Model the fold of this input.
Amino acid sequence: MGYDTRFELIRSIAWVRRTLGIRFGQGFINRVLYPPKLRVQRPHSVMIRYDKTFSLPLNTRSWIEWCLFLDGYFEYPLVRLMQKLVQPGDTVFDAGANIGVHTLLLSRLVGATGHVFSIEPCTPILKKLRRNVALNKIENITILPYALSDESGNVTLFWREEDTNEGQATFWANGATNTTEMVRTVTLDQLVSEYNLSAVHLLKLDIQGAEFKALQGGYNTLLKHKPILIFEADWNWEFSKVSFSEVQYFLEQLGYSLYSIDKRGTPVPLSQNPTGEILAIASNHISLLM
Done:
């Protein structure tokens, strides 16, 4: 590939944005300066310093990696929230870890005395996750190549091979999927027992509609340890035929209060039919929100 003048301009802008922590203007860059069509036609491999701590290789064709390249973080409100909630020494789970950007952040937050269980079943993304953890020589992360669900066994995973958003693998086929893979499923309760964990402090779920299955598979863990929960409610729930009210009732019966998360990473009252990132927190952790 020859010299890409337009991309080199974007590279300079991206460096400034990451260095100064500029969060606005991504839409303008995507629409005008370097639109998605160019991202797909002219992908670039770049390396950034992530969270001032980690080396992170990126391919700008990927939507998540493009966002990291432009802004330094992906889902920055969620990053801010985890920075408030996660403490040194905590044991946390990142299910649907993708390439590991939240896993890496969590590994720094829990420190040498804490541990991160990073769960990602989709083979192409799992390779990137393993590469990113190995590149940074991190010792407090355990990578688990499974899908978190309500029972142990096997399930078919569906995704679209050409999709620039690589984090869309689901348990349910839809009109956009064209690739399948058989993966092993495990439950949260099973993992907590297998690793003999005395505490679980946080569970982050971004598993494309299987969130309720994962919560059901962690019933005993939620009942006993009351970990903080962060999960995404989105359009994939339609395929799983799960309503938000079902999930809310399930968690409230276990003593959880639910919140939406605003653009500053602050918990706010739930809206009607909420979508996006949801925080569920039990009374033992409420003080962390103060």
Q: What stands out?
A: The first helix runs from residue 5 to 20. The chain has twelve helices and 13 strands. The chain has a mean pLDDT of 92.
